[in-house]
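USER: Note each token:
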Amino acid sequence: MNTAAPHSDGLLPVLILHTGDPDEALRQSHGGYGEMMRHAAGLSPDAVHIVRVYLDEEPLAPSAYRAALITGSPAMVTDLEPWSERTAAWIRQAAAESLPMFGVCYGHQLLAHALGGVVEYNVKGRELGTQTIECLPDATGDALMTGLPTRFPAQLLHAQSVTQLPPGAVALARSDMDPHQLIRLAPAIYSAQFHPEFGPEFMRDHLQQYQAAYGREGLDADALSAALGPTPTAASLVRRFLGLCQRTSVRPSQNTGHMPAK
């Protein structure tokens, strides 16, 4: 989709800020991160506007969209790449205009960075594979988290983490290595360090592809592969988030509709 015209159902399109891709072999087998995010969101191609910001493409104004999803990337937020910093500035504008947003991995970190948090390498090391996510007390009563189990598996693949939350942000879930696995940064703005869009097949191929490199870090790719499993609760989160945004044909700030109370 090259423009942000309303979809046939009257909804504004969902923006996917595409921040990078896996290497060519993995992309050929599993698709790029923009398409993975679209599938995780359950959206048809004509319902999204995928913007490859890492290739210097630029999104339209936040008012052109009903929500934004921000993908993972092999890049590092702390490198402060020009395209990434431009995207952070767009995110700040979108947050000021109350655009609903959901970021994943790099997108999680970029949201935090853009809104005043701190991103650094995780001092506990790289977090890989199917790991357990544990909900924190602030998840109780949250619109996105209502009805979810207090513990659920998710696919993890990251070296950097959000080490300091932005002002006003709340941690909703943690893992053994990261206290900020799921964050509510503002009403209708969420982010996850884990990957709702990844399945065990992608993770298995990734671990095999980088087995030697991970071995040099002391990580056992074979053991991590053997422990991979399905992650249905984590996989549901992007669609659950969009469900909060679909109650009206335009964004909550543009008419009398409102996001559910948090």
